[in-house]
Amino acid sequence: VFAVLQHNTRLYLANVVNLSQELMYQQVLRRFAYFNAIKLSDPPPLFDLLMIALKEEDKIAEMNTSLLKQKSEMLLEYFCIHIDEQGKLSNLPVILDQYTPDMDRVPEFVLSLANDIDWENEKECFQTISASLGIFYSMRPPLFPNPSGDGLQFYRK
What we know:
The chain is of the alpha+beta class.
């Protein structure tokens, strides 16, 4: 979460999560409506992603799936987030070249798109979507341990 940076004879303690979140937010604003895409090879259904994030709240997942399907055209046009007619998430934007976000955080991101966006006010809508993307793409410790070394024991359990 933290990194030590040196400049000349000074050392600085930096919060990598906060810095990367702000970097990603600024990149979203810079690339607005001009994103390349990360194509998901096996597009997950929004409903399944929302169920993971909500921990089995069927009604809320259904409502959120319906909302995101309604907003899919705008999400694709401005943010390169593609939700198909079946409600599957098939594209995510490229925010920073040669960087892929932690895909374990996709359910959390989809839930954020459904719950944290001000869909009524255009400026607020674009800002809150950009903020959600910034959070999703930020560099954070992984949700699950690396499956090599000691982390492999976690998966065997």
